[in-house]
Request: fold
Amino acid sequence: MKKPFITLPAHFDGNAIILDAPYELQPQDKLLVTILKSESKSDERNEWINSSSIQLNKAYSEEEPQYSLSLIKEPNPEFHK
Reply:
């Protein structure tokens, strides 16, 4: 029994939709096409940098408590100062 749906990676080369993985299509096979708009690599990279910066600022804020060494229950012998 054939699966009713299969997702295949593909791209548009400017003229036609090209499958990125081999798959045998039959004449009259029905297709659904979903377009994933790509952003420039620098935009995506800047979004990741911005998000990381925000999360790091939250994790290491001025209100972050200072933990003393007496709170360590089991020292890591691999840790070097």
In short: The chain has one helix and two strands.
